[in-house]
Amino acid sequence: MPNITSKELSALDDQLSLEQVLVKKYRTFANQCTDPQLKAKCTQIADRHQSHFDTLMNYLR
After folding, report:
1. pLDDT tens, 1-60?
2. Which of 16, 37, 42, 60 is such that its CA lies 20 to 30 A from the CA of 53?
3. Is the dihedral of CA 49, 23, 13, 54 positive or negative?
């Protein structure tokens, strides 16, 4: 892994936090939905943000 600056590390930390918030929000929205299509869309969005989070974490490892 290439060396990253403290500013880049801080930006990655911020992005990880944002992705976590989005995953939690969309999972909550999905759990509250009664419309199956809307529930599926919220779950799909949550999964996409979880993937973003996982990719960033893998980069840091």
Report:
1. 568 899 999 999 999 999 999 999 999 999 999 999 999 999 999 999 999 999 999 988
2. 37
3. negative
Helix (H, G, I), strand (E, B) or coil at 31: helix
> Rounded to whole angstroms, what are the CA distances from 33 to 3, 21, 30?
44, 18, 5
Q: What angle do CA 25, 27, 32 make, to 5 degrees?
A: 95
pTM of the model: 0.87
The one-letter code for the residue type at 44 is Q
Tokens of 54: 């996982």
Token digits of residue 12: 């990655």
Domains of the chain: residue spans and CATH:
8-60 (1.20.5)
